[in-house]
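TL;DR need structure tokens for one chain.
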Amino acid sequence: MKEILKRGITGIVYVLLLLSAVFLNSDAFDFLFMAFGLACLFEYKRIVKLKGYYVFVAYLALWWAYIYLIKSDWIINVLLIATLLIDFFLLYFLFSKKEISFKPFHKFLIALFFLGGGCIFLTMIPYRGGGFEKILIMGIFILIWVNDSFAYLVGRKLGRTKLFPSVSPKKTIEGAAGGLIFALIAAYIISIFETNLSIIQWFILATVIVVTGNLGDLIESKFKRKANVKDSGAILPGHGGIWDRLDSLVFAAPFAFLTLIIFSHVS
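>> reply
TL;DR here they are.
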């Protein structure tokens, strides 16, 4: 009971922080996710034993360039392609049955594009339409939260079939299906308030976010299992580290960004 209360209080504070950043002003949102990116990198460095601080410098330079300086679509697409290539490599790492070891340079690239690129695209999503689309980014947060919450609740009540027992023994196929169903319901409700996307587009975006978000969660779990640690950090009582909270969002963000680009070209 004490643990549930601790998780609940931390969760409320985390949600209030995000809400404040989104609805206060765009600069607050930008710098919050810049800070979240630094925290994720710090936790990742500790888990994979990546030495030095050059990854922080590279991330900050990349973040500043893409958030404030670069407006060209083709240069943004270069970062998107690099980020997606690293993400697909991490999917190979997730599903591969053979042991994969990373050299320091590989760890650096994963940090910069998987975590850094993920946070950058998460920050860029609400600017896709030219302004700062608060409801769009809040909708994406809500889809992730609904999926996580109902995957846990449905899995706890109905879960029988293990989803990926070698990486995350508690996750079930029933839980994953329940999370997706409730996320689609949430997408329908969000579409009433955010009409720049059609209902069908919200359903597609929700599916992309749920599937890639679950994969991001499993990828982080595999990194932690290889390092024999339970949480990425301890900054959030009852929840672990910042990466533990953002694992789904960080991996899903570039795929969501790509989906929004496709929508803009086909609508």
